Amino acid sequence: MTAAASDVLQTGHVGLNVTDLDRSVPFYTRVFGLQVLTQGEDHGRRWAFLERDGRLVLTLWQQSDTSFAATSAGLHHLSFQAASMDEVRAAEAVLRDLGAEILHGGVVPHGEDTASGGIFFTDPDGIRLEIYAPDDARTATAPYGTAPTCGFF
């Protein structure tokens, strides 16, 4: 077996292409409680770096002219873990206030007889997102039985 380049590997940050930075920055800061670390423009190229607690979490790049296509290879969805189901439900309230597309009607488990679950939704460009908690999702029915909910939305 070949040795890994690093013994410790974790996700650093996620970069997303968006069509309208002026629309996406307020969405991500409000829904996820992120702060703008920096943003800029150079020769018509616009970007924003969003952080939480001093850690870069998300970079947004205004370089797309079409919305997200779930049928194309690449990103399936972006998932964020919350500390509790109360935090997931608070995010759900913000999403409803923003008029975001919420799938499955609200909070659902990740599968039948699974304690974890969350809310599945899209951003203004149709990028599929999830906020979940590791427990307390058994109060709803899983949309796809034993198939992973996060795989089919």
Task: Walk me through this protein's architecture.
Helices cover 17% and strands 35% of the residues. It is α/β, with parallel strands linked by helices. It has 2 domains: 10-64, 2,3-Dihydroxybiphenyl 1,2-Dioxygenase, domain 1, CATH 3.10.180.10; 76-153, 2,3-Dihydroxybiphenyl 1,2-Dioxygenase, domain 1. A hairpin with a 7-residue loop joins strand 6 and strand 7 (117-122).
Percent range for β-strand residues:
25-35%
Give the second-level CATH assignment, the architecture of the largest domain: Roll
Give the name of the CATH superfamily of the largest domain.
2,3-Dihydroxybiphenyl 1,2-Dioxygenase, domain 1
- Number of H/I helices: 2
**Strand order across the biggest sheet?**
1-4-3-2
Oligomer: single chain
Q: What's the order of the H and E elements?
A: EHEEEEHEEE
Largest sheet: 4 strands, mixed
> Mean of the pLDDT scores?
92
According to CATH, the fold-level topology of the largest domain is 2,3-Dihydroxybiphenyl 1,2-Dioxygenase, domain 1
Please give the share of residues in helix.
10-25%
Shape: globular
Q: Distance N terminus to C terminus?
A: 36 Å
The CATH class designation of the largest domain is Alpha Beta
Give the beta-strand count.
8
Q: Which regions contain 5 or more consecutive residues with pLDDT less than 50? A: none
Structural class per helix/strand content?
Answer: alpha/beta
Radius of gyration: 17 Å
What is the number of domains? 2
